[in-house]
Automatic annotation (TrEMBL):
<feature type="signal peptide">
    <location>
        <begin position="1"/>
        <end position="21"/>
    </location>
</feature>
<keyword id="KW-0732">Signal</keyword>
<protein>
    <recommendedName>
        <fullName>Lipoprotein</fullName>
    </recommendedName>
</protein>
């Protein structure tokens, strides 16, 4: 009887060890997949209002964001504003400096987008404040620019 109990205990421990080792391997695979897809973002974290970006910039620092706002393009004043009224009143703290990707610059006629509400996608940098540090941050390497109707 003791012999059967000992054999059963050894078999049970063996199966337990195998299960733990296999679980560890699948966890390693899962971790590598998570790293591979770390740039995939939940839509609600990617498509945000400018208000959230202005109020909690640290939450979005160095993250890709999609925002809608009023675009002004002029010398030393390229920015997207929370509202047209903010642009009219020159409330630059309610705006983000914009910096377009080289690809977008090459193929875009920016006159079509100036002084209009637009949707843009780019990476947010809360530490870069644009011309003379007047803005709430920078949306850099912008890869999408469309008129918002």
């Amino acid at each position: 009887m003791k012999k059967i109990l000992t054999i059963s205990l050894v078999l049970l421990l063996s199966f337990f060890s195998l299960g733990c080792a296999q679980n560890s391997k699948s966890k390693d695979k899962q971790d590598s997949k998570e790293e591979e897809f770390s740039e995939i973002i939940a839509f609600e974290d990617y498509n945000i209002s400018m208000l959230r970006l202005i109020v909690t910039p640290e939450k979005y620092h160095n993250k890709t964001v999609q925002i809608i706002g009023y675009l002004n393009l002029e010398f030393e004043g390229n920015a997207i504003y929370f509202h047209k009224e903010d642009y009219d009143k020159r409330l630059s703290e309610n705006a983000m400096w914009v910096n377009f990707s080289d690809d977008l610059v090459k193929k875009t006629d920016f006159k079509k987008y100036n002084k209009k509400y637009v949707i843009i996608v780019g990476k947010f940098d809360m530490n870069s404040k644009g011309h003379m540090g007047m803005f709430g941050g920078t949306i850099k390497n912008i890869s999408r620019l469309d008129v918002w109707n």
